[in-house]
Amino acid sequence: MKYRDVVKKSIVAFMEGRMPEQTAALKEEGLKYTPEYFDELEEEILGEKAVDKKEDDDEES
Amino acid sequence: MRNLKPRFDAPIPGENFTSDVKNYPWHRSPDIVDFDEAVEYVVEQVSKPSAITTITSLMEGGANLTSIVSMLNMVNVSNGKYAVDTSLLISGPVARFLQIVAKKDGIDVKVGNENERQIITLEHLKALSGLSAGEDTEAEDIVSQPDMGRVRDDSMPQGGLMGVSEENRSETASATQQQSMLGYSELDDEEGDA
Questions:
Q1: In DSSP terms, which residues pair with B32 in a beta bridge?
Q2: Contact in structure between A46 and B100 (CB atoms under 8 Å)
Q3: How confident is the model at residue A15 (pLDDT cuts 50, 70, 90)?
């Protein structure tokens, strides 16, 4: 298996919601950058964008 | 035939044990060992205006997330920022962040195709350089012209390599001019005859 293939496997696992358990167990407070964190970030970024676009449309009309 | 000459510039057995193994950044302890710190570092790195422009262009050109994340990891591991193991752990979060950036810019980016290796084609390069399909038709028209790249037959010299071409044949000096160039004059000819 090549490095590229392992990277892809890691990406797919994260996208499916899996996290490195042993790494997470090292920290009492847990890991910050979890799939849930990025879901919230996506909502925040793309949600803001949608609101901005709506405001622009209102100004034009 | 195989060259059997001995190579005296080759390393001697065990020479690797005599060299300093901390010559390269990846031979030393990495700067970042924490998962969250490493993710933060890469996210900050790719969020810089120059970096995000390049990465967005790559994604528009058809590069998938695996290729981009592998490239970022290679750079950071070779600079000693984090270890290879950490690079594999943070690949997921970094790819997810890039996916959000792509969605924000309206780019459809894929994780990567299992069976297909990403090959940089002319289309990729055109996309990266901002050329659309219609902009380079002028260049293609010029190349497709029948005379393009062909030497006109009438311009080819007759009479071998040193022959005079038809274009230059009229510029050849007359017999009198050639005589004067050689230092002879009509008077000399007359004296010679006498």
A1: B82
A2: yes
A3: very high
Cα gap A9→B92, rounded to integer Å: 9
Here the tokens at position B77 are 């591991």
Tokens (6 digits) for B43: 């996210």
| B113 to chain A: closest CA residue | A8
- Cβ(B103)–Cβ(A46) below 8 Å: yes
Mean pLDDT by 10 residues, chain B (194 residues): 74 82 83 94 93 90 91 93 94 94 90 62 57 46 50 55 61 75 65 50
Question: CB within 8 A of B46, min separation 6: which ones?
Answer: B52, B55, B72, B94, B97, B98, B101
- Strand, helix or coil for residue B17: helix
| C-alpha angle B46-A19-B28 in degrees, rounded to nearest 5 | 60
Tell me, what's the ipTM? 0.79
Q: Which residues of B lie inside 8 Å of A (Cβ-Cβ)?
A: 35-36, 39-40, 65-67, 69-70, 73, 84, 87-89, 91-93, 95-97, 100, 103-104, 111-112, 114
Confidence band, pLDDT 50/70/90 cuts, at residue A52: low
